[in-house]
Amino acid sequence: MWSASGATEGPSKYSMSVSMYRGGARGFGRPRTAPPDLPSLLLDARICYLGMPIVPAVTELIVAQLMWLDYDNPSKPLYLYINSSGTQNEKNETVGSETEAYAIADTIAYCKSKVYTVNCGMAYGQAAMLLSLGAKGFRALQPNASTKLYLPKVNKSSGAVIDMWIKAKELDANTDYYIELVAKGTGKPKEEIAKDIQRPKYFQSEEAIAYGLADKIITPQDTAFEKRNYDELLAQSKAMRSRAAAGLQAGASGAR
């Protein structure tokens, strides 16, 4: 996988794509090329991992992964693992736009594949909304995961009155859409949700299930993803390279 951080100097603060191996050690039976990076291995198992605040680079990667997996095999479910503080960071500072999360939500609704969601740490704000929009019956939490709903907000702004008025209208629209999507996921009336989240509302796992944000606590017995036989895949790759090399050798001999 690639990320926008490659276009700038130094690693991005919010880059979800980290190459785990660069070259690797050469040894008996090891391939001569570097193994895939971790996000690619997860993608091979139809897993998308949202593991940081929802900023544009993260949205670009998640939406692209969802679209590819849906195109690759729309008959199989895909998995969205969430460990995100939403559009705010650990200091409650806004670092992303709510529209980024809405782009992911719209992509989930667009996919023909069922999207199974898992809160594997925390799902706050817009991330909690994404958790609730997974396929009903397949929205899971880990036993010690935490979930929190909070209202969208914008960074402190100044300037002309008209600019501040436009910001206020944008905030109202984002709040209405956020409440609408949480209501869709939980099945609760919008009025009840609007009242509940006037202040940040925190849930432990059982409380999140009772509120309708998730369906179950995940256990080791649950099938997390379709396992691949990587030894078999490696053997097939070696066989294909051997056939290709033999074909080139035969072509070179014929040319003589």
TrEMBL record:
Organism domain of life: Eukaryota
InterPro entries tied to this protein: ClpP, ClpP/crotonase-like_dom_sf, ClpP/TepA
GO molecular function: ATP-dependent peptidase activity; ATPase binding; serine-type endopeptidase activity
Gene3D superfamilies: 2-enoyl-CoA Hydratase, Chain A, domain 1
One GO term (biological process): protein quality control for misfolded or incompletely synthesized proteins
Pfam families: CLP_protease
Keyword DNA repair tagged: no
GO cellular component: endopeptidase Clp complex; plastid
Keyword Hydrolase: yes
Alphabetized UniProt keyword annotations: Hydrolase, Protease
Family: Belongs to the peptidase S14 family.
Subunit field text: Component of the chloroplastic Clp protease core complex which consist of at least 16 proteins: CLPP4 (3 copies), CLPP5 (3 copies), CLPR4 (2 copies), ClpP1 (1 copy), CLPP6 (1 copy), CLPR2 (1 copy), CLPT1 (1 copy), CLPT2 (1 copy) and 3 copies of CLPP3 and/or CLPR1 and/or CLPR3. The core complex is organized in two heptameric rings, one containing CLPP3,4,5,6 in a 1:2:3:1 ratio and the other CLPP1 and CLPR1,2,3,4 in a 3:1:1:1:1 ratio.
Protein name: ATP-dependent Clp protease proteolytic subunit
Source organism: Iris pallida (Sweet iris)
